[in-house]
Specification:
Shape of chain A: globular
Largest sheet of chain A: 8 strands, mixed
Structural class of chain B: alpha+beta
Strand content of chain A: 35-45%
Number of helices of chain A: 9
Structural class of chain A: alpha+beta
Number of strands of chain A: 23
Strand content of chain B: 35-45%
Order of helices and strands of chain B: HEEEHEHEEEHEHHHEEEHEHEEEEHEE
Number of helices of chain B: 10
Largest interface: A-B, 81 and 87 residues
Radius of gyration of chain A: 24 Å
Radius of gyration of chain B: 24 Å
Number of domains of chain A: 2
Shape of chain B: globular
Distance between the termini of chain B: 51 Å
Oligomer: heterodimer
Helix content of chain A: 10-25%
Helix content of chain B: 10-25%
Number of domains of chain B: 2
């Protein structure tokens, strides 16, 4: 795969007094198509490109980002980065060592099965779903959208490192809202993966308009989720959020070391817990897996050139490794104008044994929940409260009724120990979240989360006020 | 940046075909960012970015594109214009298109005195050397611009800084504060550092365990910023109201907050640009909640067309940028006495709706939270989760708002440095429900 030739040539002519310097070039083309209330929303295109120059000296580090990609623009940015590296030498909380910076070589490209059709075909597809969602006067908003993102990341170092990675994201989205008096309920569909137009089919977008509308109406008539301790069956699209907030963030090394204490928060996990702490029941196996095809944060190298490989973070319930450090390549930046920090990339729960029917059959008194709608967790990622769009009561091993406003709360440190069943590969789904916020300066980045359906025992569940 | 942007806008306008209208928006900044941990530097750097968004309108059709530019970016923007022209050919008419066709030009430029960031590194690492300071400094020039082919020109440029930081004693015992403005002053920073150190001493001693339940509470202005800020997620939006998705839905149906509660979007008192990307100029103020009753909504031009309303120059997101909550009568110095026995909450964190249509909100306490008895701080309290209705918190349970308010500049830097702000009082509550 060829790097951006112009950028490579200009990089080779750059000079710095720093022993190590690098360039990270990022170009993203993002097209948005949407139909709302049967009206075509104005299509939007964004083309974002620029470069971050980084310099490392003995004990110093600095960066400078610019959209000026001329030779002079890049040199000015490198000079500024070098000045920062000099100015922070001896004042850095991290002991930077230019001799330890990698010089990687390699490439990556998202697998694309089907190219995108033209704009008219996309609009026709979205319009059909939007129209089909208009199933009655209680439907108050219908929205169908598709986002297409092409991204190129190039990483070059003065020690000969050269990486080029190209990503394609095709993101279908559908949301329908129904209202009756002071009650409003929504159902939505979202699939966030790498790939081409084949993801539209995989998401089940076709036919979703009417289905989601009927479900929103069903929720309007449903009783609230009951209050009390019950078994909780989380479907994979809610497992995504559960894993993200109460395993992913607590395991981020920068949070553990205190870098995020002023903004995103800290972690209840302490370094001495690694290797011995029982994070969950022995059924819990969690991996950092940048190799799963199509997952949102699958890549070959992170943004500082570390090679990405699958690593078990939690095995048989025991915490083994944090997100960060030499084994986990998760130094990532949201774009050219933000520096890499520890992120969770792909964080997955490995499948276990048992079909969905087996798991439902094992529940005497429980609630199934799917599709996150509300999320809140404390700054050490322990006390959480999450809500879902859709709930179903499970009684004596059978699904018996739909319930609205299904919510639950718990404490990360004990919640995962109540994991009682982990679904098999037939329940395993690949999801992702597009806007995980963290860092100073702030960065919103995408993370992949794949998981089977899972059952937790004796969880505090509750519903809404209406 | 201003001259370059207006020059490009002129040049692009000159290339338009008959019947076309061009709107151009500019977002740019030159910023220094320094991240601190343990009173040392964690990451330091600089960012210069310029984004131009072009919107081409013809025969009631529109398409837009945003491009990161270098220099004047003219050639790339000219190509973008051609691309938009092609896109218009296959688009239907947009029934909700509304742009300002009566030019209202203006400029607001505020020069500051921002010390070089390397000097700020010297000051912070020097004065805080014996402390566990963690935080983030962002400083430099922010520019926003608008131009259209009808001759309108708007510019907003400000030199500012925002140093958002915390002092830690241990684990999650910390005091959160900040120093933001337009002229950095070492003496002022040192004074703020001393004040934070004094507050940190209150976190000494054993923690008091608080069982879930309902307690009197005082929410300091920074905690109120989180609470009222969450209501901005659709609470004041015309589109959210029309589609029944506002968290204040029950107020649309007649429910009220306390008469003490008045909230406005006060562009005249804030630091955000007074114009938006459709070319409309914002009024000085818009009353959103008046004496506990739902008042005007923020109406974007698109919502105005869709719902037959008059626009008040809201942005597409219909969220406040210069939030202003009216003061009350309780002197801030009497807040502890007024609280008597309960929780003093300096900050809230990670708020979300636990039942959005019902206005029910959950979230955490964070940083300095204290148990108070007899109007005196007795002990720090571990982070606790609350889950309560806005109609109780700012309704029947609202005892008083403070006479003094704090002006808080948003330290957010997602995509770009924020220009949002909020002016808020503290609030004394008869009861707040804690669940975990």
């Amino acid at each position: 795969m060829q790097s951006n030739v112009r950028i490579v040539e200009r990089f080779r002519r750059l000079r710095s007094a720093a022993p190590f310097w690098s360039l990270r070039y990022h170009e993203e083309t993002h097209e948005s198509f949407a139909i709302r209330q049967d009206v075509v929303e104005p299509p939007r295109l964004s083309i974002d490109r620029g470069a971050m120059l980084t310099a490392v000296t003995d004990g110093g580090y600095g960066y400078c980002a610019t959209s000026d990609l001329s030779q002079a623009g890049l040199q000015a940015a490198l000079d500024r980065a070098t000045a920062w590296a000099e100015a922070t030498r001896g004042r850095s909380v991290v002991r930077f060592d230019p001799r330890r910076m990698p010089a990687p070589q390699g490439s990556y490209r998202s697998a694309v099965v089907r190219e995108n059709p033209d704009r008219q075909a996309i609009h026709d597809l979205l319009a059909a779903e939007c129209k089909a969602a208009n199933v009655g006067p209680r439907i108050v908003e219908r929205y169908a959208a598709l986002e297409l993102i092409d991204e190129e990341r190039v990483y070059l170092t003065n020690a000969g490192g050269e990486l080029v990675q190209r990503f394609r994201f095709t993101l279908p989205h559908m949301r329908v809202t129904a209202n009756r008096g002071v009650e409003t309920q929504s159902r939505s569909l979202e699939l966030a993966q790498q790939g081409g137009f084949e993801l539209v089919e995989r998401a089940g977008l076709v036919g979703s308009g009417e289905r989601l509308a009927e479900q929103a109406l069903q929720l309007l008539l449903a009783p609230n989720c009951p209050t009390g301790k019950r078994d909780l069956l989380l479907m994979p699209d809610q497992m995504m959020l559960q894993v993200h907030e109460s395993i992913g963030h607590p395991l981020e090394l920068d949070r553990i070391l205190g870098d995020e204490r002023n903004y995103a928060g800290t972690s209840f996990v302490r370094p001495e817990m690694l290797g011995s702490y029982r994070y969950g029941s022995e059924l819990l196996n969690v991996t950092y897996d940048p190799t799963l095809a199509g997952e949102l944060a699958t890549y070959a190298f992170d943004d500082e050139g570390a090679r990405a490989e699958k690593v078990f973070l939690i095995k048989d319930g025991i915490l083994l490794a944090p997100l960060g450090g030499p084994a986990v390549a998760n130094s990532r930046a949201s774009g050219w104008n933000r520096p890499p920090i520890h992120r969770m990339a792909n964080l997955n729960v490995e499948p276990g044994a048992g079909t969905l029917e087996d798991m439902i059959g094992s529940i005497g008194r429980g609630v199934l929940m799917r599709t996150n709608v509300s999320w809140s967790i404390d700054d050490s990622r322990n006390k959480f409260q999450f809500g879902c769009e859709w709930g179903e009561l499970i009684e004596d091993g059978r699904r018996t009724a739909v319930v609205k406003n299904p919510s639950y709360r718990g404490v990360s440190a004990t919640f995962w120990r109540s994991l009682r069943r982990v679904g098999d590969a037939s329940t395993f789904e690949v999801h992702g979240t597009l806007y995980c916020g963290k860092g100073e300066p702030n960065q919103a980045i995408h993370c992949g989360h794949a998981a089977p359906a899972c059952v937790f025992s004796d969880v505090d569940v509750f519903g809404g006020d209406a | 940046m201003k001259d370059q942007f207006f020059y490009i806008a002129d040049a692009l306008a000159a290339s338009l075909h008959a019947g076309e209208t061009l709107l151009a928006s500019f977002h740019g900044e030159r910023s220094d960012f320094v991240r601190f941990n343990h009173a040392k530097v964690r990451q330091a750097g600089s960012v210069e970015q310029r984004y131009v968004t072009l919107r081409l309108v013809r025969s009631r059709r529109q398409a837009s594109a945003s491009v990161a530019v270098a220099g004047d970016g003219f050639n790339e923007l000219k190509q973008t214009l051609l691309r938009l022209r092609d896109a218009l050919a296959s688009l239907p008419e947009d029934p909700w298109l509304l742009i300002n066709e009566t030019p209202q030009s203006g400029a607001s430029e505020r020069r500051g005195r921002i010390a070089p960031a390397q000097e700020i590194v010297d000051v912070v690492t020097g004065k805080a050397a014996a402390l566990d300071l963690v935080g983030f400094y962002a400083g430099g020039t922010i520019c926003r611009g608008f131009a259209n082919s009808l001759g309108q020109r708007n510019w907003h440029e400000v030199d500012s800084f925002n140093f958002d930081w915390s002092l830690y004693r241990e684990a999650d015992r910390a005091v959160k504060t900040g120093y933001a403005g337009f002229e950095w002053d070492d003496t002022q920073f040192a004074a703020k550092l001393e004040t934070a150190k004094e507050q940190l001493s209150l976190l000494n001693g054993p923690r008091r365990g608080i069982e879930p339940g309902e307690y009197r509470a005082y929410l300091a202005p920074r905690a109120m910023e989180d609470l009222v800020g969450l209501l901005s997620w659709g609470g004041f939006s015309a589109r959210s109201r029309a589609t029944k998705q506002s968290p204040l839905l029950r107020m649309q149906e007649g429910e009220r907050l306390s008469e003490k509660v008045s909230i406005a979007e006060s562009t005249a008192e804030g630091v955000a640009p007074g114009f938006q990307c459709d070319g409309f100029v914002k009024p000085a103020g818009i009353s959103l909640i008046a004496a506990g009753t739902l008042d005007e909504a923020l109406v974007s031009p698109r919502s105005a067309k869709e719902y037959g309303l008059a626009t008040n120059a809201a942005g597409a997101g219909e969220m406040p940028e210069s939030l202003d909550m009216a003061a009350g009568e309780l002197p801030a110095s009497e807040a502890l006495a007024g609280l008597d026995r309960g929780l003093y909450v300096s900050n809230l964190w990670y708020l979300n709706f636990s039942d959005r249509p019902a206005g029910r909100i959950t979230g955490m306490t964070r940083f300095a939270t204290f148990w108070v008895e007899g109007g005196r701080v007795l002990a720090p309290v571990s982070p606790m989760r609350f889950d309560d209705s806005i109609y109780r918190m700012l309704g029947g349970n609202l005892l008083a708002l403070t006479r003094e308010r704090e002006f808080l500049l948003d330290p957010s830097t997602y995509d770009e440095r924020s220009t949002a702000s909020a002016r808020l009082p503290g609030a004394l509550l008869r009861g707040l429900r804690f669940t975990l």
